[in-house]
Write a structure and sequence with these properties.
The protein is an alpha+beta fold and 179 residues long. The chain contains 4 helices and 6 strands. Helix 1 packs parallel to helix 3 and helix 2 packs antiparallel against helix 3. It is rod-shaped, with a radius of gyration of 27 Å.
Length: 179
């Protein structure tokens, strides 16, 4: 009958966990490289759920190694992401914006603001500045009915084919683009 000391048993447990981590890490690496490293923080937080001390420590060590190998990692709050989506709403920056994913159901579909100013450019064109500092150009031939002397409520929403529609107060909507 073989007897394994407590120290040897702990070492064996650590080596087993490390072997499993290495095999799992290798399997992960073979999967889609685009998603590799995207869930580094999630990996760390999942380690907390492991009850066995040795296995939990091995999990944290493996997660820390992955974080260190990732280089610069920035943690951004959901509030910061939402503020940036609002600030960039109307610009075509989806290829540059790591937070933009048009397949997500929570993708920003509209913004509401107050019209700070409106300036006629002639020929039915207008520049409309909102209280958040964004500037929008009216792009269609629709007649505007809003008063330029009042601070009207404004809603800008996504429309078909990457265009945007602006509705000022209760007036009919018209097409706009972000300037």
């Amino acid at each position: 009958m073989t007897h394994i000391s407590r120290t040897a048993g702990s070492k064996l447990a650590v080596m087993s966990v490390m072997a499993v981590s290495l095999v799992a890490g290798h399997a992960d690496a073979r999967q889609n490289n685009a998603t590799a490293g995207n869930d580094l923080i999630g990996t760390v937080t999942r380690c907390r759920e492991i009850e066995a001390d040795v296995a939990r420590l091995a999990c944290f060590d493996a997660a820390a190694t992955r974080l260190a190998a990732a280089g610069e990692v920035a943690v951004v709050s959901r509030q910061d992401v939402e503020q940036n989506q609002r600030r960039l709403f109307g610009f075509n920056v989806s290829a540059l914006n790591p937070f933009e994913n048009s397949d997500r159901p929570d993708n920003l579909q509209s913004i509401s603001a107050t019209m700070a100013s409106a300036r006629s450019l002639g020929r039915g064109e207008w520049l409309i500045t909102l209280d958040d500092g964004s500037v929008w150009r009216k792009t269609d031939g629709a007649e505007v009915l809003f008063s330029t002397t009042r601070q009207n409520p404004v809603t800008v929403r996504r429309a078909a084919l990457g265009s945007y529609m602006m509705k000022v107060a209760n007036d009919p909507p018209f097409r706009v683009r972000r300037e």
